[in-house]
Design a protein that fits this description.
heterodimer, A: ABC transporter involved in vitamin B12 uptake, BtuC, globular, B: alpha/beta, six-stranded parallel β-sheet, elongated
């Protein structure tokens, strides 16, 4: 009974926190809008000026929605990978999957521009990212088969990430200035300048995938006992593993395609969620990850925008500072236990 | 028709055969133990039975249903498993681990009904695990973890349970507790149980049938009382040195092959500890006069250079006495284990008397004074200490 009370408290806190971070991002920025202004509009006491309307609906709200969507995608993707590898230290960025996606998107953007297409269809970019993340995932799996030690696997993932980055840098070296600007700002990772059409596509990809993950709660929980036990309870392990890989790759590919590689959210959020809610039950953890992933990225984006305003930091700068210490701490505390 | 039958199983990895020609048949409520040295193929057999690796050849049936033609989901209703591998289920409590046993029976979302909750509770009670229910699994001791994993398997409500070395990592208290649980599962819940064990002496106490495996071959299969013999164990485990007594379930190291300078007057089980203490320090000895129904006799046979023994329930005869006296004459020290000297044991009194007359030192654990000038000790170790000192002096 104590446990269910804890769940309720944590969920209320998470919802409040999410609402708070949304409001925070709504009102803060170069043009200040007060909570009162917004509430007045909602109550019908006044209407937005054209400037206010444009800032809210063309800049801030799309940015908030992208932080929410991509925060959810990264957290769930990290959670799936952690379940798959039975290890809390892995995530799409750590294993080099984001970098693989980045390489393929870069390849696509550059080759297309040089061929002459100015406007790249969004779906093609997403597919390029998906192929990139699946390929690097397969590479990681290939090594995972050979090494039992998870620390070595993480190092392998980092190396794959570096190689992919080197590939991207190589392409940048031969690109013209105009392309470099586009590629560099994209590959820094940012929630800014994402249009409604991108959000619509992302929502179509991310929301059904997350719902599907929630519907996999039962086998996901059984999988925590290890493959042999899971199999003995009736799970078709081969197809389940495949589903895990594909779902997590889709999620991280979507983020990388449209917002660029964003580090450490996939590790930090599941870990904070587990610690605060004290359960591994996916039925409870997945909704918690959705709420926390969204607010974590909203908060990170708030810092990125406001800390050194008017200069804007890249989102990964903030998430790294927030997330990397958690990874180090996790690795150290695991080493102690073994 | 037997409940569970295996016919000509061939098991192994990637087409490499590890064990061949496995046949068995079990009824409901029977326990099968797989016995054999490390690396003989026990685990490979269990892994095949539990479908962790593919069966190379042969057929396994449950009530005439082929176990290899059914899905994992259907198989889960027939068979539950307890493995040796360590699991790390993140933040799950023991109760949640047990509840996962209901997996094949719950709905799509794994919702536990009142009936499921009742079965989970019963399974926990079965392994004495109610107190552990709300603790985090990863903080339990090895014994507690093992019990929780067994509760999980019980809760799956399958007719067959397969356990891979359930007693390893457990100390003696938990071993006994665990085997009791397994036995009552077979007796009260009619579970058919297949398990591998390290402890030969435990297998013969719990198993209805035993599969003896040696170097990838089935050495023997049958009831433990028929097939677990000293000879079989010696062969299966390649016991070149040392000895295993299957009747009393006792292991001894090899005897010391030197000229014996010590004579132990033993009997009534009082000398076994002395034999082992001497053997441990590399001291050779002879022993007598023991009755053949005495526990000391069994152990003396394995550890003493010469054992003088008399038939059960008869007075010690003159010829045996003479034989023993001869050995005492040639020894440096005599040890008296405080065996009873009354009735048919009178002969041993004569021996002690003879030793004193011969001028031998007699070290004794006897509490009462029998007036022969024995050197008395309260416990064994100071006595053995003096024996070692004495032998060192004699040597120099």
């Amino acid at each position: 009974m104590k446990k269910s009370i804890r769940f309720k408290i944590v969920f209320v806190a998470l919802v409040v926190f999410l609402a708070y971070t949304i409001m925070l991002n709504l009102v803060s920025g170069s043009i200040s809008l007060s909570y009162k202004d917004i509430i007045d509009v909602i109550l019908g006491n006044r209407i937005f000026t054209e400037l206010e309307y444009n800032i809210l609906f063309k800049i801030r709200i799309p940015r908030i929605i992208s932080a929410i969507l991509f925060g959810i995608a990264l957290s769930i993707s990290g959670f799936l990978l952690q379940t798959f590898f039975k290890n809390p230290i892995v995530g799409p960025f750590v294993l080099g999957i984001s970098s693989g996606a980045r390489l393929f998107v870069g390849l696509f953007i550059l080759s297309n521009i040089s061929i002459g297409f100015i406007e790249s269809p969004l779906i093609t970019i997403f597919l390029a990212a998906a192929v990139g993340s699946l390929l690097s995932m397969l590479l990681v799996l290939l090594f995972a088969r050979k090494v039992d030690n998870i620390s070595i696997l993480v190092v392998v993932g980092m190396m794959i990430g570096y190689i992919a980055s080197a590939g991207t840098d190589f392409m940048i070296a031969f690109a013209n200035e105009h392309e470099i600007a586009a590629l560099v700002s994209w590959s820094m990772g940012s929630f800014s300048g994402i249009g409604w059409n991108v959000l619509r596509l992302s929502a179509v990809i991310i929301i059904p995938t997350v719902v599907l993950v929630f519907f996999l709660s039962k086998p996901l929980e059984a999988y925590l006992l290890g493959e042999n036990y899971a199999k003995s309870m009736g799970i078709d392990i081969k197809s389940f593993r495949l589903v895990l890989i594909i779902l997590s790759s889709i999620l991280s590919a979507c983020v990388t395609a449209f917002a660029g590689p964003i580090s450490f959210v996939g590790i930090a959020v599941p870990h904070i969620a587990r610690l605060s809610i004290k359960t591994s039950n996916p039925k409870i953890l997945v909704p918690a990850l959705v709420l926390l992933g969204a607010s974590f990225c909203l908060l990170a984006d708030y810092f990125a925008r406001t800390l050194f305003s008017p200069t804007e930091l890249s989102i990964s700068t903030v998430t790294s500072v927030m997330g990397a210490p958690i990874v180090i701490w996790l690795m150290v505390s695991r080493r102690k236990k073994v | 028709m037997s409940f569970l039958a295996a016919k000509d199983l061939q098991v192994g990895y990637h087409k490499r055969i590890v064990v061949d020609n496995i046949n068995m048949d079990l009824n409901k409520g029977e326990i099968l133990c797989l016995l054999g040295p490390n690396g003989c193929g026990k685990s490979t057999i269990l892994k095949t039975i539990t479908n962790q690796i593919e069966l190379l050849n042969g057929k396994m049936t449950v009530m005439d249903k082929d176990l290899n033609s059914i899905s994992n989901g259907e198989r889960a209703k027939y068979m539950s498993i307890v493995l040796t591998e360590r699991i790390d289920p993140a933040m799950m409590t023991a109760g949640e681990v047990v509840a996962l046993g209901r997996y094949p029976h719950t709905n799509y979302f794994g919702k536990l009904t009142d009936n499921d909750l009742r079965i989970i509770e019963e399974s926990l009670i079965c392994v004495n695990g109610m107190k552990l229910k709300n603790k985090q699994f990863k903080y339990l001791s090895d014994g507690e973890k093992q019990r929780i994993l067994i509760a999980r398997a019980i809760c799956q409500e399958s007719d067959i349970m397969v356990l891979d070395e359930p007693t390893s990592f457990l100390d003696i208290k938990y071993k006994v507790e665990l085997l009791n649980i397994i036995k009552s599962l077979a007796l009260k819940k009619s579970k058919t149980i297949i398990m591998s064990l390290h402890e030969i002496e435990l297998a013969s106490k719990i198993a209805d049938k035993v599969l003896l495996i040696k170097d990838g071959k089935i050495y023997d299969y049958g009831a433990p009382e028929d097939i677990i013999t000293d000879e079989a164990i010696r062969e299966v485990y390649n016991l070149d040195s040392g000895y295993f007594n299957t009747t009393i379930g006792n292991i001894e190291l090899p005897k010391i092959e030197e000229e014996a300078k010590i004579f132990v007057i033993g009997g009534g089980g009082k000398a076994s500890r002395i034999y082992r203490a001497l053997n441990r320090r590399g001291i050779a000895f002879n022993s007598g006069i023991l009755f053949k129904n005495d526990m000391d006799y069994n152990i003396s046979l394995k550890l003493s250079n010469k054992t003088i023994a008399e038939d059960e329930f008869v007075n010690i005869r003159e010829e045996k006495l003479e034989e023993a006296k001869e050995l005492i004459k040639n020894c440096d020290l005599v040890i008296d284990s405080a065996v009873s000297l009354a009735g048919i044991g009178k002969g041993n009194y004569d021996l002690i008397q003879f030793a004193i007359e011969e001028g031998k030192r007699v070290l004794s654990l006897r509490k009462e004074d029998i007036g022969l000038g024995l050197i008395n000790y309260n416990t064994i170790s100071p006595m053995i200490h003096d024996v070692v000192e004495y032998l060192r002096l004699v040597k120099n």
